[in-house]
Amino acid sequence: MLKLDLEYFETVLCYKSLTDSVYLASIIDYVDPEYFTDKNKKEIFKIISEFYVKRGSSPTLTEIKSYLNTSDLKENFRNVVDTFKGIETNFNHDELYQNTEQFLKEKAVYHTMMKTVDDISNSAIDTSEILQRFEKSCNISLSQDLGLDLANDINLIEADLTKEVPYIKTGWPWLDGKLGGGYLRDGRAIYIFAGETNVGKSIVLGNTAISIAKQNRTVLLVTLEMSEMVYARRLCSNVSSIPISNLRYSIEDLKAKIKTHKETYPEGRVLIKEFPPSTITANHLKAFITKIVSKNIKLDAIVVDYVNLLHSTVGNNSYERVKHSTEQLRALSYVFNCPVISATQLNRSGYDTNEPGLNTISESIGLAATADMICSVYKPDPENQENTIAFGLMKNRFGINSGTQNMSVDYSTLTISEDNSINNTHQVSRRLTCLEH
Fold first, then answer.
1. What letter would DSSP give residue 346?
2. Which has the closest alpha carbon to 315: 327, 307, 323?
3. Are strands 340-345 and 301-305 parallel, antiparallel or unpaired?
4. How many C-beta neighbours within 10 Å does residue 422 have?
5. Rg (CA), the chain
6. CA-to-CA distance for 208 and 64, rounded, in angstroms?
7. Using one digit for the tens of pLDDT, what is the confidence trace for 34-80?
8. Whole-angstrom Cα distance, residue 223 to residue 332?
9. Cα separation, 103 vs 31, whole angstroms
10. 62 Cβ partners below 8 Å, 6+ apart?
11. What pLDDT is stored for residue 385 in this prediction?
């Protein structure tokens, strides 16, 4: 990339901000007056910025002069206008926006670095916040893509409609059917399993990881609640069908079955990574995954157990923090082009409830607004079906937004499978109610 003359570009930025309201609208959220090393431009841009916030457009010559209410400001303006005399006003549009983006990123990174040095000097170190500042500085974008033109881009729409959408199967045919095929292989979606404490959310996520690996794919399982070894025992029991309580007495049998599993699914991998609860943000997780990708490992799915245990530096309450964490986690599915699967808690109103609703999501309904799919995990009949749980569609952007399915749980090996033979009294009563009306 060619090196930009930052001092000269300050003049360009000021000129375009005064003469082009569209340009000003594109940059206003990213420019800090402190980015200007020339004090004249700094003072004048403050006026331009305040005027835009108030009126939504660039000030005219007459309007800006009305705000030059001191001799110093008038002198500032004269000096700025003088610098415009050498500017070629016929700008190449793409070059202008590309250079502006480069200017803003370099200035933002520099000022972030200086603020970080000050914080360290004052012993005020918050690594999560520092990482977030640099992420924000580096992610400035002045994209000029106008998006999809519904009428003129009909050929693109046709191509999208007729292409085969690649999926990763969930491991449960009922859920695959509801999602139109499974988890979107190319990502851009987050899938959430919601359940009360101890109902089996981690078992669901563990089964999910193994199912993906059995499709010869690589999945990263991030555990924020259990240790890597505890999770490994669970997955070993699932793969080998050896009861988890007997693993230590069946080492040779376990090793043989894991070897067979590897030979059957040579490309399938489950990477388990443990972090203490509430210590990492989604940005920290992004940095860790970037390290994995740098080793030429392509992740096909990311499983996080679970979203509420991520740390967030944004928000003053659980609603804002969990919503932000969910948004950031969903963003990873765009960055790494793979689905993200996680879980969340239900609140007390969702306990022992047949088919819980979105209003029972714990801590933050903001999570419900962000997720692409939310599948409840609950006990359909807590008293009579101890080896049974049920799935229920609470939210689904990919198909029908309703329906339940009974699942059989083998707690000795922590394996979940569909069981249509189990009587679901709730479903029967619903059918009877429909017939009565």
1. B
2. 323
3. parallel
4. 16
5. 28
6. 61
7. 999 999 999 999 999 999 988 889 999 899 999 999 999 999 999 99
8. 17
9. 10
10. none
11. 65
